[in-house]
Amino acid sequence: MGQNLIVSNIPPLTAEKSEKDVRPPALHVPDVLRGVAREALTEARTAMTDPGLDEATAIHDFRKGMKRWRAHLRLVEPFLGDEGRRLRNEARDLARLLAGARDARTALDAFTDLGRLEGVPLLSARSVATVTARLDEVRSHAEGVSLTAESRAHIDGLLTAATEGVKYWPIGGLDFRDVAGELAGHYGRARAAIPDDWQAAEPETLHALRQRVVIHRYQMEIVAPLWPRFGEFWIGEAQRLRDRLGHHQDLIILAGFAAPHGPLSPWRSRLMPLIEARRAEHVAVAQRLAGRLFADSPKSFRRRLLALWDHRVHAA
Asked: What are the residue ranges of helices labelled H in 9-81?
């Protein structure tokens, strides 16, 4: 039933050709892999070097670029050997440099998200203003410590070297069957991370699932040039699931700020019931999304990808 629900939302394999009435351009898999890598690195580098970006935007864009880069490295690491592991460890360490600023920004986002609870008053206008100001103070301090000129230059230097190294990756002999196997493997890991009982799942369990979904979502950007309608649909579904799980994790971080002796501890008794109610909403929606997205077995998912590839090859 779940599998049919997914398939019913995807156009038949011949639909895109009949609508566009054009032959798809030839794709060279190594070029696509290198192109996605360069795009992710460029996004992260731009965040560190664009003087027009404020610090909050720079951190957000940098984190997004690094997530894309790390997910892509997981995909190609089996073909890069020791260099792949080195790059992924380096990317992990870079992402941790801005962890403090990330948590403060996340808590602010989660506090805003609480206001979307239907029929439940948040706090008084005065309390909302005070909580927001306190979180913004923590965020500003963390960003000032993290984003120094030296740290920006250090990050840019490492990303520049990584960008240059992409052209020398030993992936010239890869074909789509190799990539499909890796995509299906990571899809399977995300599917295996789905809890049996969503409402009773520990925050760490849902956070681990979110991490797997993020990897899968960005890795599916490889498929987008292969068949845009399928790729856009799938990435959109994965993004919606990622957002719900992300909002849930944001609320966990906000709860940490409201812990005893935390910056929001004076509002703990009022915040925690709101946090729990909003968490339950996100979990319920995430469960429905995951049921649709991960209805296929990993083997069926791989067959789907290969069928798309064969269709494209025969149409070219």
From this structure: 15-20, 29-49, 55-80
